[in-house]
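Work Package 4 report. The design task specified in the project plan requires that, given a folded chain encoded as structure tokens, an amino acid be chosen for each position. We show below one input record used in the internal validation round.
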């Protein structure tokens, strides 16, 4: 049994997601060195922290991404606050063409939200072996306690994961 909650998005929300996708299409993502990331279709997976990030010395800082693209995280924050208004978060990742292997998130304080956008097929989120379609919908799950991973996909897939650190 998983802790998963599904939040469907109305047409206005899908328009907002399309706007976020167009913003992300302008970003020059950095290639990820994360060992939990798989590659496919000769795509170069990329992950960028947003909100706050924990530094190696234990302090918190604003990620470089937010300084370079100051309009993106507030747009994501406003979108999430409209559809899941009681969700408390201060950090996250924007992933481009990232397929994660099974893992648990060690730094999250509570549950995570994830949503997918882009022109892709496949790419469902598996939580404890149960698949969930994240494209144009928000999924809440306990990434700290529940093993999760990404299904193989084709195309350009963005996923936005937010949580509290």
């Amino acid at each position: 049994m998983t802790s998963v909650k599904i939040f469907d998005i109305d047409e206005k929300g899908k328009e907002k997601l399309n706007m976020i996708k167009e913003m992300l299409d302008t970003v020059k993502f950095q290639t990820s060195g994360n060992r939990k990331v798989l590659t496919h279709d000769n795509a170069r997976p990329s992950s960028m922290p947003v909100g706050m990030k924990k530094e190696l010395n234990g302090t918190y800082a604003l990620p470089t991404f937010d300084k370079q693209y100051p309009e993106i995280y507030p747009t994501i924050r406003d979108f999430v606050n409209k559809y899941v208004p009681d969700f408390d978060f201060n950090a996250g990742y924007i992933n481009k063409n990232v397929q994660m292997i099974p893992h648990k998130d060690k730094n999250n304080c509570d549950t995570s939200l994830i949503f997918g956008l882009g022109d892709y097929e496949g790419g469902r989120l598996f939580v404890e072996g149960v698949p969930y379609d994240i494209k144009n919908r928000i999924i809440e799950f306990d990434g700290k306690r529940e093993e999760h991973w990404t299904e193989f996909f084709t195309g350009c897939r963005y996923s936005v994961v937010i949580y509290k650190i």
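The CA atoms of residues 49 and 64 lie 8 Å apart. Validation will be extended to a larger panel in the next phase.
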